[in-house]
Amino acid sequence: AGHCGRPRDCAGQVARTASLGMSEDPEARCVAAWEKLRLVLEAGGGTFEDVVDMTTYHVNMSQHMAVFRDVKNRLFPRGRCAWTTIGVSELAHPGLLVEIKCVAVQR
User: Fold this and answer.
1) Which of 94, 100, 104, 106 is deepest in the core (most CB within 10 A)?
2) How many other β-carbons are positioned within 10 Å of the β-carbon of residue 6?
3) How far from the centroid of its chain's Cα atoms is residue 88's Cα?
4) How far apart are CA 53 and CA 83, in angstroms?
5) DSSP letter at 87?
6) How does pLDDT run across 46-62, given as a tens digit for each residue?
7) Maximum Cα–Cα distance for the chain, whole Å?
8) Rounded Cα distance, 23 and 36, in Å
9) Could you report the per-residue pLDDT of 3-21, keeping only the tens digit for each?
């Protein structure tokens, strides 16, 4: 498929608030990570529709993947890009459960 525009890498987005806090609820954390990604894409003039490749990193993947997938299916267009999921023992800050990284190309 032909894409136009320059690829934009969106560094890993996590569920931390502006004050660096986070919810105790795993679903709220997933929603917050997607919201942060949406804001980063919008700041660059893009949307979720522009994402062509995505990698998600998960702590306790077997425990939280169903919640993450449910949130993803509600907020992110299905089948729009390649998606790789990776289980990790921890992320950069204690308590984080998920990190979303993507490449977007404005069409």
Assistant:
1) 104
2) 9
3) 15
4) 6
5) E
6) 999 999 999 999 999 99
7) 42
8) 14
9) 567 788 888 888 876 677 7
Does 95 have pLDDT greater than 70?
yes
CA-based R_g, the chain, Å: 13
pTM of the complete model: 0.87
The pair of structure tokens assigned to 99 is 């990190």
What band does 94 get if pLDDT is binned at 50, 70 and 90?
confident
Element (H, E) at 67: helix 61-75
8: which 2 tokens? 């934009």
Token pair listed for 93: 């800050």
Specify the residue for token string 């660059």: 44
Nearest Cα neighbor of 26 from 53, 78, 54, 61 is 61
